[in-house]
Amino acid sequence: MLKDFSPNFNAQNNRSRNLYWLIKSRLDGHYSVLYTGDKGRAAHELILELRDYKKFGITAEDVAKRLMDYGFHAPTMSWPVPGTMMIEPTESESKETLDEFIMVMKKIVKEAKNNPDLLLRAPHSTIVKRLDEARAARNPILSYKDYLKSTLN
What we know:
6 helices, 8% strand, single chain, alpha+beta, four-stranded antiparallel beta sheet, 4 strands, disordered N terminus
């Protein structure tokens, strides 16, 4: 991914172009974007509105967990606005990676509408499936030794 770097590379401009490209030309119409300027551009991150998908029973957490099935790390969720997802492509992300991410986000919209169970049960491709997050916060298992103890009880 570093092949695009050159002595004249301006990381901040590339990041802004990546975000503008994500918002206007590819995700517009699939996700609402909060906090854009007069020209519809975001600063250094974009905040996707996911509360619209509650009508399908889907939350931001469901979308984030489904992203893991497609090989993407879950982005920042519900900050600074509950029910949203903050996307921050790094300066070094390639067009191919952005294309794949956009394709996956569009696919997730279709899944939410046509087969919400895919999202509600995600992730499907990880060793550890959906956790009971409240239980995990109260009783964290932070090492393999702790895991072995928890399975003996």
